[in-house]
Write a structure and sequence with these properties.
about 170 residues, mainly beta, elongated
């Protein structure tokens, strides 16, 4: 059994099934499913007038513990293509909820999602590594070139500077 909502007396626009799942433009297979037809934009739009940040989407995994979390997954043609996932480093408690965020893309020749980048609970960024040791840690087992910096003007350089109050030296490469 279900509750159906029709727009013109013949075409169902929304359905709530006996499990409480809601489908807009479709028969739902998850808690909320929205499907559009043709080239029309499909999705959920939220608008707010808050003076600060208004969270448009809030994901909450109520199963608290190490490596528990939530994420967003993208698909194309029914196949997994990417994801952003956050997980806890420990059991979260009031005022203490350390977590890390991972970014995934599908591998060539497969729809398996592989972690490509991580931001740990200390703010360190790892590309190609799941355990960054510094503010930015880049690792590749497949190539000797780890980074490519390219500028469109005649004077490209990389600047390294110590931001302490006693050292004003800057090293330029380029």
């Amino acid at each position: 059994t279900y509750i159906g909502f029709e727009v013109d007396g013949a075409n169902e626009a929304m359905r709530i099934d006996s499990s409480g799942r809601v489908g807009i433009g479709c028969l739902p297979s998850t808690a909320l499913e929205v499907t559009g037809n043709g080239d029309a934009e499909t999705g959920i739009t939220t608008t707010h007038s808050r003076s600060g940040v208004g969270f448009t989407l809030s994901l909450d995994n109520t199963n608290n513990g190490t490596n528990k979390g939530s994420g967003i997954k993208w698909k194309s043609g029914g196949f997994d293509t990417g994801a952003i996932i956050t997980r806890s480093d420990a059991v979260a408690a009031s005022g203490d909820a350390p977590a890390y965020m991972t970014f995934h893309t599908s591998t060539n020749g497969s729809e398996d999602l592989a972690e490509r980048m991580r931001i740990d609970s200390s703010g360190r960024v790892g590309i190609g590594t799941s355990s960054p040791n510094e503010a930015l840690h880049v690792y590749s087992a497949a190539t000797n070139v780890l980074a490519n910096f390219e500028s469109g003007d005649a004077k490209a350089f990389i600047s390294f500077k110590d931001n302490s109050t006693t050292n004003t030296d800057t090293v330029f490469l380029g």
